[in-house]
Design goal:
The protein has 264 residues and is an alpha+beta fold. The chain is 42% helix and 21% strand.
């Protein structure tokens, strides 16, 4: 029987390939919570026999791992290798890294580089603070763009096209989820030139986000995260000054996408 295909946007989607990607995404979202065969079959709406065969194929190729009993499943090491390859092959990430180090040394706070991916931002690089009281993050983390300084800095760059639609996730009591309030906040970001959020994504944490404008509209941004307990007026002014300077430095040495593949 030939491979079943599903029409999508003028191109026929291969059903088995789509199912494989969906399975890997489900396992990735679960993190350290392994899944059972029944859970995966039910979530993806496929027969257990088909799910079992797909899992065994991916286990053999290193994309999925299983426990000694063969009853629990998690994401495999080849997913890490592929993700690392993405970062290693991206010249903009390589260019930004020493400047993230510079910002971290100057401020002593946690510094991030992230990229807009649909309605989320994805962390591409992080420099953790050396302070005892600090924020924690990791490369590959996803965060709704409307809830953090990184995302709001990028949403403000093209408000008409990027303003989130529908119901927005509320991560803390301070997250702006009303369309009017979010639009007003993004307008302030555009006027100010950078984004500020206080406890909108994580309680007790403030963030300052700066879009990197080597693309139009920008898709990458840098930020500084700091516990509110350590955020004085003087420290905030220094964070803004240092991060604005770091943005200028990164933009000045990062070529626009005029050579090589035009990724989308």
């Amino acid at each position: 029987m030939p491979e079943q295909e599903i029409p999508t946007g003028g191109v026929r989607e291969v059903k088995s390939a789509a199912r494989t990607v969906e399975l890997l995404e489900v396992l990735a979202r679960r993190g350290d919570r392994p899944a059972r065969l029944r859970e995966l079959a039910e979530e993806l709406g496929v027969p257990r026999s088909s799910m079992y065969a797909l899992l065994q194929t991916l286990i053999d190729r290193g994309w999925v791992r299983t426990d000694t009993t063969g009853s629990l499943y998690g994401i495999g090491i080849h997913a890490l290798l592929t993700g690392t390859s993405y970062l290693d092959s991206d010249p903009r990430v390589r260019i930004a890294r020493p400047f993230l180090d510079e910002a971290s040394d100057a401020l002593g706070e946690t510094i991030h580089l992230a990229r807009l991916d649909g309605a989320d931002v994805v962390y591409l690089a992080t420099r953790e603070s050396h302070e005892y009281l600090r924020t924690f993050s990791r490369v590959g983390r996803r965060l709704p763009a409307h809830a953090g300084a990184l995302g709001k800095a990028l949403l403000a760059e093209a408000m008409e096209q990027r303003l989130p639609q529908g119901e927005l996730e509320q991560l803390t009591p301070h997250t702006r989820t009303a369309p009017g309030a979010l639009a007003a906040d993004l307008a302030e970001v555009r006027e100010r030139g950078y984004a500020v959020e206080r406890e909108e994504s994580v309680l007790g944490i403030a963030g300052f986000g700066f879009a990197l404008r080597y693309d139009d509209p920008a898709v990458d941004a840098i930020s500084c995260s700091v516990p509110l307990a350590r955020l004085t007026g003087e420290h905030e002014r220094r964070i803004v000054a240092v991060m604005a300077e770091i943005r200028t430095k990164i933009e000045s040495v990062t070529p626009r996408a005029t050579h090589g593949p035009q990724w989308r």
